[in-house]
Amino acid sequence: MKSKRQRSRWLALFLGGLVALTAPVSLYLVLTSSSVSADSDSKEAAGEASANPRAEYWRAVRHGVEGYSAVTGPEANVLIQDSGQTWRELRNGPGLTISAWLMAAVLLAVGLLQIFKGTWKLDYRTGKTIPRWSVFDRVIHWGLTVTFILLALTGLGLLFGRYVLMPLMGKEAFGAMSAVSKPVHDYVSPFFIAFLVLSVAAWMKYSFFKSYDWEWFKKVGGYLTREHVRAGFINAGEKVWYWFLFLVGVVVVVSGLLLLTPNFEWTRSTMQLSSLFHIASGIGLICFSFVHIYMATIGNEGTFEAMVGGEVDERWAQLHHDAWYDEVVAEQGSSGVKTESTAG
Amino acid sequence: MARMKFLCDSERCIECNGCVTACKNENEVPWGVNRRRVVTLGDGEPGEKSISVACMHCSDAPCAAVCPVDCFYTTDDGIVLHDKDICIGCGYCSYACPFGAPQFPEKEAFAVRGKMDKCTFCAGGPEEDGSEAEFEKYGRNRVSEGKLPLCAEMCATKALLAGDGDEVADIFRERSMKRSSRPDTWGWDVAYKDGSHEI
User: Fold this and answer.
1) What value does the mean pLDDT take over residues A61-79?
2) With an 8 Å Cβ cutoff, are B112 and A183 in contact?
3) Distance from the A206 Cα atom to the nearest Cα atom in chain B, whole angstroms
């Protein structure tokens, strides 16, 4: 009973943190729930005071009260911490199931789009190309890609491996693999952070929303009707991806850095919250990356070559990014568009 | 089959830390790790209470539940042990444990945690019983020699009891009746499915 009440208070705190606007509500919840438990505690203690005057101690201890210990170390003076149980239930429960279903749902949606609509092909190519991504853009993009995929695979291995890979590989082999993937996850992360910071800084100028982006959202980018909607250098969907990467990226980086530095002796509740935020933000990024990878490869003809060679076919720009194409033509005239011979 | 449990009698514990020292010495515990510790509540105030705490060898062990590589196992005696050859040092067990039992040596470069270390109920690990390798990684295997954990064996006031849960509970119940105190099996409600407040 007691642990459930404590757990619900903890959960209220956690959710309150997630939805920043509900801070007053969560404060109210914490205050009311703690006053309720204090009431019942004091009543119980009063009833049993004659049997053991220190009886209330054990209830307090159950809720993580601090004492003195000659043994030094982080939280060595706390006898029992309750939030570990909440963390366990959230991580092993919804942390696993919601993550799995979310990834499956996104993959299914992408798969259905490909099955029913197929690749969005170019009707023709003019053979002339327009420079789109500089060498610097491409280096940070692929740096981010490689580090992200390494982190995603090793992270998913640590979250789901025990349930998915271990039954197939056996405990020893999976343990040996994880002993490699855990340090890989740790040591790749600084490079991911560097590439993420560079990407966020480099591409912000493309990512502010314009009035025509609203039309793009209303028509879901024309992906269902196969009708080209006006878009700038990057379309509204890519802008959402950018801001998602930015904001959720901050969450994944901050929570990850906390988990990466246990030597700073963060409290266990900090680590538990970090773990949950890290799972949620990591899975969010993985899900969005499924859509991004699909759209940029088999989803649209002519998109992938932009990030490989740095240039796109003129027709691709006209169809997918007409506002940008108009700008290129207006600014540079025909000099912005290279002919096939010079593009090579 | 016995179901091993620890029980600390808070009416008897005098915070001498003998159990902590006995454990460190017997198991040659890594530097910076104390598998057992004594916590005093209301220190210096009238009626202060001390509790010696280590791994309680839970029935539904949270450490085992969150371990990404499933390196924990429970022996037939109900002792929760782990395999340091499989452990990857992620620290999740230490976040989940209510009692703060799993600890890390923290001696490696770049803040990398070594293999987790915790109380084994003096029952070693998966290596061959009494072998050098077992002692190196997990400490003494007294249980295989028919002995109980040294912390409890050396407790001067017999506050710390270790052994089969039923026998430990019987001893404690007898004590509680003699002194008309509340039979509080400290930590059992957290650690054991069948360990309600009643004994």
Assistant:
1) 87
2) yes
3) 38
Provide mean pLDDT across the span A68-87: 91
pLDDT beyond 60 at B162: yes
- Taking residue B171's Cβ as centre, other Cβ atoms within 10 Å add up to 15
Alpha helices in A72-170 (DSSP H): 83-90, 96-117, 135-164, 166-169
Query: Rounded CA gap, A286 and A302, in Å?
Result: 24
β-pairing, A68-69 vs B160-164, is: unpaired
A241 touches chain B (CB under 8 A): no
Q: What is the pLDDT of residue A33?
A: 41
Mutation target vs B (from A4, A6, A10, A69; most B CBs, 10 A cutoff)? A69
CB atoms near residue A58 (< 10 Å): 24
Q: What is the 3-state secondary structure (H, E, C) of chain B?
A: CCCEEEEECCCCCCCCCHHHHHHHHHHCCCCCCCCCEEEEECCCCCCCEEEEECCCCCCCCHHHHHCCCCCEEECCCCCEEECCCCCCCCCHHHHHCCCCCCECCCCCHHHCCCCCECCCCCECCCCCCCCHHHHHHHCCECHHHCCCCHHHHCCCCCCEEEEEHHHHHHHHHHHHHHCCCCCCCCCHHHHCCCCCCCC
Which domains are delineated in chain B?
Answer: 4-191 (3.30.70.20)
Instruction: Answer whether A168 touches B (CB < 8 Å).
Output: no
Pairwise CA distance, residues B123 & B130, whole Å: 9
Q: Per the CB < 8 Å rule, is A51 touching B100?
A: no
Q: Which pLDDT does position B114 carry in this prediction?
A: 85
* C-beta of residue B83 within 8 angstroms of C-beta of residue B89: no
What pLDDT shows up at residue A1? 42
Give the three-class secondary structure for B75.
coil
More confident residue, A47 or A127: A127
- What are the residues whose beta carbons fall under 8 Å from the beta carbon of A260, sequence distance 6 or more? A186, A189, B111
DSSP B52: E
Element (H, E) at B6: strand B4-8
How many helices (H) and strands (E) chain A has is answered by 15, 3
Name the E strands within chain A: 68-69, 129-131, 311-313
- Considering only residues B51 and B109, tell me which one the structure prediction assigns the higher pLDDT: B51
Query: Which has the minimum average pLDDT: A46-55, A310-319, B179-188?
Result: A46-55
Q: How far is it, in rounded angstroms, from Cα A85 to Cα A6?
A: 10
ipTM: 0.90
Q: Which residues pair with A78 in a beta bridge?
A: A66
Distance CA A185, CA B155 (A): 44
pLDDT exceeds cutoff 70 at B104: yes
The β-bridge relationship of strands B72-74 and B80-82 is antiparallel
